[in-house]
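Example record

The entry below shows one chain as it appears in the dataset: sequence first, then structure tokens.
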Amino acid sequence: MFEIFATIKTEDGELVMSYADFLRTMTPYNHGDLQEEETIQSYVEKHAPKLLKLVDVNKDGQISFTEFFFFMLILQIPSAKLRKRFKKYPEGKMTKE
């Protein structure tokens, strides 16, 4: 799925997604009115920055395959299990340690 929607190739040859690509991936049948890239970009900036900032872990403005894959894995975990795991950490936040 990543290779179908990702439209940017980095200088290193890595395929990455723009935020608009990610929006298309998550809602492939709901962006009928958002065909033009400018329209998609303005929609993304207005409505989805919080989610995109969570997915774009390194905050480089693009979503790598690793970031996309991790996000998709998290979506597969039942919310009850996630809540249970996060309750073990102070203030519900994990650290890198």
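Notes for this example: The beta strands are 8-9, 15-16. Helices lie at 2-5, 19-26, 37-47, 49-55, 65-76, 79-86.
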